Structure formats: C-alpha cells, structure tokens
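User: Structure tokens for this complex, please. No commentary.
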Amino acid sequence: MELRERKQKILKAVVENYIHSGVAVGSKALIEQTGLNVSSATIRNELADLERNGYLLQPHTSAGRVPTQKGYRYYVDNLIKGSNLSDRLKSHIENAIETGADAPERILSNTAQVLSKLTGMASITTTPSGINARVHKIRFVITGRHTCMAVLITSNGMVKSRLFRVEFVVTPELVSMFDKVLNEAFVGVPLKDIDRAFLQSVGASFGELSLFMADVLFAILDSVKQAMQQSINISGSTNLLFLSEYDMLGARDVLKFLSDSENVSTLLSENIKGTKVFLGKESGYYELSGSMVITTTYEIGNQTAGAVALVGPLRADYQTLISMVEYASDYASKLIGELLEV
Amino acid sequence: MELRERKQKILKAVVENYIHSGVAVGSKALIEQTGLNVSSATIRNELADLERNGYLLQPHTSAGRVPTQKGYRYYVDNLIKGSNLSDRLKSHIENAIETGADAPERILSNTAQVLSKLTGMASITTTPSGINARVHKIRFVITGRHTCMAVLITSNGMVKSRLFRVEFVVTPELVSMFDKVLNEAFVGVPLKDIDRAFLQSVGASFGELSLFMADVLFAILDSVKQAMQQSINISGSTNLLFLSEYDMLGARDVLKFLSDSENVSTLLSENIKGTKVFLGKESGYYELSGSMVITTTYEIGNQTAGAVALVGPLRADYQTLISMVEYASDYASKLIGELLEV
DNA sequence: AGTTAGCACTCAAACACCGCGAGTGCTAAA
DNA sequence: TTTAGCACTCGCGGTGTTTGAGTGCTAACT
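Assistant:
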C-alpha cells in the first residue's frame, strides 16, 4: 500500500506529534508541523482519506486524529530511519553491560537492566540457548558425605551445575571414576540427543556399575535440561505502571503477561533472526494489544543464540528505542563472544 | 490498653466483617453478628467509644466504621488464635515445596511460589545467609583454555560458583596446585573474615606464585561475597494489582517498593527470630502504609538463617495467613535441614 | 447508670444537566 | 484542487438534585 508523498508527510507528523503529546492531533496543528503550504481544510481532506484507509482514527467526532495499529506499522516500516545515539549514551550502555560481567548470564541480565533503566520500559533478554550445543566437559565436585555436584560445561560456554545425593558414601576414587566413565560417554554429544533413552543405553553399558549411577545420570540429565532451556531476564516491568502512556489496567495486564515465563518465551521464540517490531495485536496476545514489542536477536559464533527485547506502550519513540535495543544487543553479543572465544 | 469484653467482641466483629466485606460496617449489622442482645443505639455508643480511643475510624460522617491501624494491631495481638489449616492445604504446601528440591535455593523459591499462589498476594523468601558460615571446601574446574570455575562450598551447605579468566593457559597441574594451596589457606576460615586484606596476606604467603593467583583470589572473594549475601525470591507481586482490597495506586507503590531489593532486604533483616506482623506504617516505609507484612524466620541447625514473608493489603485474613506462612516456613526449614545434615 | 426508641442530620454516590471549546464535515466559491 | 465559512458534534468540567445508609443526640425507660 503506497501513499502519496503529502499523505506520508501528514501521517508522519500525526504519529510524531501524538507520540510526544499524547493527545489527538488536529488539522490546525499539522499546518505548521508539516510545513505544507495548504489550509487546514485541505489537511482535513487528507486526514479523512487516511482514516478511510485505516491509518488513523478519531476517538470521537469532535477530536483530532490518532494513529491506528496500521498507522504505526506504516510509520515504523517506511517513515523512520535508524537514529544515531549520542556517544554519551553509547558508552553508558557499554559500561552498564560490562560491569561484573564474568559470564554470559550476567552480561544479559545487565543488558536487560540498562535498557529498562534508560527507556523506562520493561526489557527482556534470554540467555543463550544450548539447543545446538554439545557437551564439552563434565566435572564432579564432592560437597558432602552423600552429596555431589555435577558441573556441565557446554560447547557454547554455558556452565550449569546440579547438586545430587546418593545412597553410598562418595569418595574421591568414586568421583574420579564417574569423571572418567562419564566423560567418555558424554563428551561431544549434542545436548538435544541426551534424553531418557540415551541415558538408559549409557547406563546399560556400565554393567553392574549402573546401579551406582542412576542418581548421577539423573543429575546430568537435569543439567542438560537447564542448559538447553533459555532462562529469561525481565527487568523494569514495574516501570510500565508509571508510564502515562498506559492506562493502569492495560499496564496491569502486560505485567500479568510478563510474569508468566511461558508467555514470554513463546513470544520471543518467534523471532528467528534480526529485529522485529510487534505492534498491538500483531503479537497474538490480547494482553499486549496496547503495547509494542521490539525484539532483536544476538549471535554467538554466527549462530542465533538468544533475544533482547523491549516491551512498552504503543505510543513510543520507535526510532530511538529500536536503535538502543540493537546497540545493546550487538554490544552484549560482542562481549559474550570475547568471553568465550579466546 | 485493655478493653472490656463487649468492646472486644464488637471490635472483633467490625474487623472480621470489614475484612470480608470491604465496606464500612454499621451498628445494625453488628447486632446479629456479635449475637449481643442489645439495640443498635448501644452498639453505636460503644463504637463511638472505640473511635475515641483510636481503634476505629469513620470514613465520613454518614458511614459505618472501619478499623484503624491500631484496631488491626489489637485484633492481631489479642483477638485471633492460630487457625488449623486443613490437611489438604498442608499437603499441598508440602508437595509444592518439595518438587525438584535439590538445593536450599530451590526449596525457598518453591516456598515463595506456593505462598503467593495460595494467598493471591506477594511472597518473599531469602536464601540462607552465609554470614556465620565457614569455608568448607574450594574446588576448581577447567572450563576453557584460559577460563576456570571456582566452586565454593560453605559449612552451611551453600554452593557458589564463579567463572574467571586468567592470562596464562590453565593446565590440570596448575589447577591441582590451586586446589592444594588454596584449600590449605581457606578451609575453616569464617566467610566474614575474607576480605581484601585477608587475600593480600594469603597472596603474600605464596611468594612468586602470587602473580598467578591474583585473578583466582579475586574469583574466590566474589564467591564468598555471593555466599554471604542472601538472595531474595519474590513471587507473585503482580497479584497485588488484581486485589480489590488495593486501589491501583497503592498496589503500584508496593510493587515499586518490592522491585528494589535494597528495600526488601532491610525490611526483612529487622526480623531476628519468630513471627512478626507489620501493619501499615509500622514498617517505616510510606509505600507500605496500606499494606501488611507477615514475616517469620526459619532456622538451620538452631540458627536463624533466613526469612519467609508475605506482603498484602491491610485488609486481610490474618488468622489464616499467619498460619500458612508459619507452616510453609517450618516445612522449608525442615527440608533444608534434611538436605544438609545427613 | 446503663439502655433504648425516635428523630433530625450529614454526606458520598449516582445521575442529570449545561456551557465551553476544539475540531470536524460539508458546501459553495475561487 | 483548494479554500473560506459555517453548522454541528461531543468530551470535559462544573453544578445541582435525589437517595439512602448510618450517624449523634435527646428524652424516656429499667
């Protein structure tokens, strides 16, 4: 659906004015804002046209126009260009992401935090998924007479640990036996191949040892599950309650939505690669019908690993926000890369 | 401040009626509710008396009475007795706390979750503090060419790990050297004694090795910090937004308050031992002036280790809620005990 | 002295009404 | 195609009005 240049200009002006003012914008205000040399009546004709085509909406007869979801969509797709963030802002983001960043998890929780602080909205990041990773190493640490910790290190650099308890007394000899046998069995195996059936076949190969091993294997399975599962950081969801752009009930529903990690992970999993903007009902969740979601992905070693997202009101400064999300995501990605590669 | 029996009866009826109905309660309704064989005028006299003494309040002249903070206080301190929870409820709580409970952290996050689900309010638990613990063991795991994981096991059963990176290439020999030297230096040392100064003295004793050790020591310091710090689970804070007892702005402030872990940890740290109920402003935070907080502590090996708390509106069924919090806390405590002792 | 019936009084909540002003759509002329 | 002019619409804020629940007070009763 193409729009004439003048219509584009007017639509852009309506959206941007509305984004900043929050009130329906009328024909008069648009004269100066667009710089067009026409009367208010002409603008009104164009506005009526845009409304007929579904880009704008009148809240009530005697009010100005407000963008519809379709209007925002057109604006986001055609009318904005990447803004360049100030150097100050960039280095602020960098610093915040770096502080105390000893592991990917920390980097990503920092990322969510700084985005939510800067935008005043809610930010979500997912830790790298281990879905394509393999077992790099398994280690065991004795933690008590009957307790042990299994440490799983994956090829994509995630470290997951799981305590477990066994009937017998754990001795250093036993543990180094675990270590040897299990590393032989597991190193290099893709995580997604490790399931109950696989464990059973491994267990069987141990012969009479396998009785000892049941608890150990279970602990490993659990760590593998942990490593496959993306964990989710949500930061600043409370912010939404304080935004004037939301009515309180709308924000409340968004929080409800975000508090269920099931929802969040399916929302973000739709995003294969690159940046996307979901506007209102496009996401498919009625709780988000008054919200927009900006999602982008980050990569580790040329492979999409996780997502960085921002959730906020439909009435938002898309231009800046998209740039910020992308910048933060890229930087986090770079940092994780450095952490793991070397 | 003692109250005559009839006044007590009336106060109790007002509180309980108000808790359930949410509207100011008038003299007529109290006749049947108290079972007192008096007229409404008599009740009115008593009500006026209770109001003069600060237990009740009239929202406006032509309305019934509502409990004040002082009224709730008297009710909680003198007018309720521990209710016995149904067996069904008890076993529900037990099951929920047990599932997947491989570590204290998990038990406590389960505890927060089940309490928030059952009450529809927000629940907080803190993981055991390592403030009185000692180093039980330190282990190292090679995770990459230049990266390592330090695993700290404390005397109170907490396991904290920290990745770190070093300039040189980590070899098994180096790591077993770390292991040996550092365990000699650290095992049995109280966590709270481990600070920069301590590390420096340890480092110095290594002589020329100490150059190698800087990063390692730093990683240990960080794990120790982690182990000393209670981490906080908050579950169900979004619930508060859906409670009719709150006006939305009140709930919003509570959420804001809860989202700052600084606030939460000082709130809970006031509680040395046993159950306490903070009503409204008693907590000292204006954000909680419309809320009540029930806190109790759990113990590990006869030592207070952490807190279990519930945050909700002032208008709440204290009798049941207190019982639930205490029951859940006791059960979690028992479970952690079992997990660690054996 | 405590209790009660009766009554005048108060005040929040719900509802209707009204004037304003911003902004519109339409029409007829340029 | 654009424009000036004009009648029209409707949300918003402010102002009565009514209703009803619940009170405090007083004077009589036990």
